[in-house]
Amino acid sequence: METMTECAQPIGFHFLFLRLSIKVNVELCTETRPSVTTANRNAVLAFQSSKKSRHFTYFADFSENVSLFSRRCGYVGKSARRTLQLWQGTMKEIGGKFGSSVLTYFLFLKWLLIFNIFSFLVNFGFITIPQLVYEPSPNIPLNVHFRGLEIITGAGYFNNTVMYYGGYSNETLVGLVDYNMQLAYFFTITVYMVLCGIALIFSMAKSFKKNYVLADSATSSAWQLLCSWDFSVTNERAVRKRKSNLRIQLKESLSEKAQQELLTLPEQLKHFGVHVGSWLLSTSLAVGCGASIYFLCEYEQKHTADTGSWSLLQEAETLLVPFVVSLINLVVPFFYSFFNEFEHYTNQRNQIYALVIRNVFLKMVILGVLCYYWMNVVAEVFSCWESMVGQALYRLVIVDFLFLMLGCFFGEFLRSVIGTRLISRLGVPEFDVGRNVLEIIYAQTLGWIGIYFSPLLPAIQILKFFILFYLKKVSLIQNCQPPRRSGRAAQMKTIFIFLLWFPFFVGALSMVAYTAWRLPPSEQCGPFRGLNTTFGVIEVWMDDLVDIPGSHWVIWIYQKVIRSEVFYFLITMIILVVIYIFWQVTQGRKRLIGLLRQQIVNEGKDKSFLLEKLQNLQKSRKPTSKPNKQKGHSKERPGEPPTGSHSNAMVQALLARQQLQDEMDQSVPSDTSNSGALMQAMLARQRALSQNGDVYHRPEERVSSFQTAQTTRNQENQESDGHYRMVSPTNAVTLAMQARQRAEGTREDDTDYLPSSVSSVMRQVMQARQRAEEELNSPSQNTAPSGSSALIQAMWARQQAQNEYDDGY
After folding, report:
1. What's the mean pLDDT in 637-653?
2. pTM value?
């Protein structure tokens, strides 16, 4: 029995070694298997994709070519559309040299030009062409001839043409279809004014929402410092000028704030008195100009005969009122600009707004006086008063254009010559965006008022704006510099659209509506002759629809809806409710944006506070433990990270493996070195388990794992300091059993939270163990049998722990 036991023991050992070698080889194969499997999978996928690509090559090429062709066509179309845009290159040049604020004027001028082109096409297509087809030759008296002065005065030869209201018939034109000139004239003017109003409202609302509703209410200094740079400026000289202007604005803004804070109560009262006096003076001046124009119109009316033929002197006298009106519009704004010399505004924007409001009030007073004179005096004196009003508006448009050209020459060219050659301290004049925009707004208002009295007046406006664009461009480039104080271009455009809509468009619409609703039309000329009011053409049309079957619903809508005051009251209430709802939504969004900004500020403060606390904590903490120094055969590695990190588990296993190889190279024939290598590998593996457990276990388990790892590390230090004390087989078996128990406890606690990196670490440990086993079994080493038996038992216990631990995955 003893012999059989002695024979069975080597067989069991060989069987165990064979099993361990197979296990290690399997683990080594599983390590290299993912890379081989991935490479094979990629090769198969590449082959399949190449096979599929051969089947769909023609379809893919065709679809790709179609997509490329469509993209190229889209790019070509966009490029052609940009090229065909009016004045595209000129706009880029002006924006690059003078900035967005000056560019706003030219964009606004282009926008008004498009308005007039649309107006001319509508009026010429639905009013003028049918009249010319019906009556090709105008009904001009024989004693009236073209003398050339009509180009400026609009009287004489033009009086009986389709240029004015009196040249259109009130009959139904009979041809391929019956064309009612009364309805065509009324609905064309009405639809055009409605479309203009809708376009202005939508443009103003869109711009207001974008630039005011959700805009940041930042201070002027912050806006100037952070957001006022104009990136459209590309000219180097303009960039340097813009930087200098921005620096000056910042200095002046800061000085104004300082002065505002230092102002005493008497100084504030003094400035308030200056403001009140300036407003009283400007208002009185505007009212005086309006009164003088009214008396001048009455003087002109007394010397004007109600006849179709005037002498040259009488035609020239009609230019007196337009000349005075244009002179007032040219001189008084310059006089208003002198108020800035003694007025003190804490905000430059308020100064600009004050100047704009004064100019708007002046122009509205002038237009209001003229409209009152036309509707109350001219309508009662002249037989064909609509044509007389149309002639007056024509003269105002022409003379205003002449004064604009003179303003470009005298106001800008001579000012530039004086500033550069005679009085150098004056310098080059600035391009006044506000004043120039108000001039074209005034001109457009004349066109809207005259659309009823002179349907072809938009043609004059088109020619006027087209020439004015090039005049202003040449004058800007040759004589002017960018404004030193440029406002926000987007908000300036919003303000200009708002001024165009109110009060100018609303005033022109009120004038046309009052004329059509209240004033009786002329009895001798025009399409509405013989009617009580212009709106009476709708009643005549309703009377004609009574005899037509199927048109009773139109008559009901007219009588019950259009002529009902309740309908307009309900429409007004609905509009007010919608406006109130949108206003409340806007206010809610503003408050929400304010809360979000405050939350961002608070979060920034919290982060700063936490960072400060963290820095203080890091400064106050001192390292409590130093890296373990291995004595004897272990060497300290300077690049080794701390043992507490999760990423050094692999490093520790590799260090144990390297240490084992160093001990084997020294060929120490003792059980101490072999047992020490075994213990190093097991301790490295235990530290890896403890570190992974620290990451994924609960706080209590982290503490226990840390304590276990610390105990194991202390045992390692004690063993390394014992000067190669002999490690008994019992201790090796005991450590292996402890490792097995810890593996079982870890598996039972949190098996689901174990990462895959633990298995890789254990594979590394097993590789080190396998290599150690091969070196121990080599005949060059003379190990003791008892030590080998203990080592094999420890490895067997360790293998069982490993198998049970792997079952947890």
Report:
1. 44
2. 0.65
